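[stage:ingest] chain + small molecule (flavin mononucleotide)
[stage:ingest] validated
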Amino acid sequence: MLAPDNRYTDADEAEIVDAAMKTRRAVRAFLPDPIDEQVIRDILEVAARAPSGTNMQPWKVYVTTGAVKQRLSDAILNSGIRAEKVEWEEYKYYPDKFFEPYLTRRRAVGYALYELLGIGRRDVDRMRAQHDRNFVFFDAPVGMIFTIDRRLNMGSWIDHGMFLQSIMIAARGRGLHTCPQAAFAPYHRQIRPVLGLSDEEIVTCGMALGYEDTSKPENELRTERAPLEEFVAFMK
Ligand SMILES: Cc1cc2nc3c(=O)[nH]c(=O)nc-3n(C[C@H](O)[C@H](O)[C@H](O)COP(=O)(O)O)c2cc1C
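[stage:predict] done
[stage:export] tokens:
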């Protein structure tokens, strides 16, 4: 409850907000259960309350289901372009060469996921097959593709990311899960005609949205975070 001075009076409020953030994780296997379009609208409407420099709201989202989602998957999976050969032409999500502490963190999540799935470290075929699960949105009933106008500057990418996180949190508030998916970005050439994107639009990422399939091992993954001491400096 909000008190008249705009301060929360009830500790439960913190619990609710924290729970939404703590239970958000990248879910990589979804149930086919459909999601009511009104629920998706509600999520996007509340997420669009995300802040942005001078309220520019630098985001656009294509919500795909059914036949269009299928066409998107087909266009990518039938493109014949293997993930390891794909070019990050529009923007680079990752550094050209990983370095510490990022390299160790990246490896940890990769190994943990493959271990849960029983994929050996040299089992390239199964790794590739798992990566390709991105392109069916891990079987989620809703697949979103996000774009940003290429004429904007880096600041707008900060705002864009906040919009993404807000969607993921709003989804949790409704019992839904998500997986943000940069894997789509390099396939912008395949995505463009399916969604009718303009030349100004850069595909930033995709996002799966749906109900978690709790029976799948990949969803047992729980990622770690560095302790506060590693990334906070309290200066007095
Ligand atoms: C912008 C963005 C893009 C991501 N792209 C992918 C992706 O393409 N495929 C995937 O399986 N996970 C992807 N992830 C999920 C990350 O691997 C995940 O957030 C990270 O390992 C931390 O785990 P957690 O989200 O479960 O806490 C992405 C995350 C973000 C924020």
